[in-house]
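Sample entry (311 residues):
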Amino acid sequence: MNHGGMAVALVGATATGKSALAHQIALESSADIEILSVDAMTVYRGMDLATAKPTPRERDEVTYHLLDLVEASEEFTLAQFQAHAREAADAVWLLGGSVLYVGGTGLYGRAVLDNLEIPGQFPEVRAELERAALSDLEGLYVELERLDPVAASRMEPTNARRIVRALEVTRGAGRPFSSFGAGLRTYPAARVVQIGLRADFEQLDRRIEQRFLLWMEAGLLDEVARLLDKPAGLSRTARQAVGYREVLRHLEDGAPLEDCVRDAITASRRLARRQRSWFERDPRIEWFDDLDTARRRILEVLNSPDGFVRD
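Predicted structure, serialized as tokens:
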């Protein structure tokens, strides 16, 4: 059935131009379009440059949601993000607006757009399993085969991270990990029309390098230093952000800044390829190489029955 709210999603790899296009559409459209940023790292306050977060001026021009939700010292889970995204979308729809989801974090997108049921976190159980995995990963896999053979069949017996997570949920929730869904490689009927932006990798590689160098000129080193100087520092998750983790190597370990910049650019290029691969597996995405054609399609969706969210 139709949810009643209007929405469309703009997805794709980093540096394809998603953010700029979304901002242009929301700024120039006569409809009340508000942007929901579907990104794992823009939720952190103070992490602005290397997350390509909209500038203060852009945020004055267009209404953005899901930015600066927590301090960079805090952990922030997928389930928390999903809950915030639902609240933000409902608030937009309540006032008669349309939602434009924009982002390149594929898992977060699936959680929001497909309304995934997300298993909880059980830190004490996970800590126990992580200790056991160091000496008896084979035994843990045997336990998973017994408790949740479906989940066990979906992973390699040597993949400690996935085995631990599956057992953490199975033990902690008291139900098989596989019961939370058919898996991310299964694609249900679309709730929200997804528009994908695509660019060839040679072009993306140039954009990524130019962009990162501009971020360095704009003060990325100082931004990371300020985050590091705060009493609580950066959380484990925030530290993994591409661009930040490489600059942290310079600030904390004394690695040459030139090497760290080069590594950050390389890591960003690899991220773009992983993101592209993730999105290309989804048969529901409509792909566009031309920004203007993508813009027209997005507006067409939001002005037609295709824009209704289907639940």
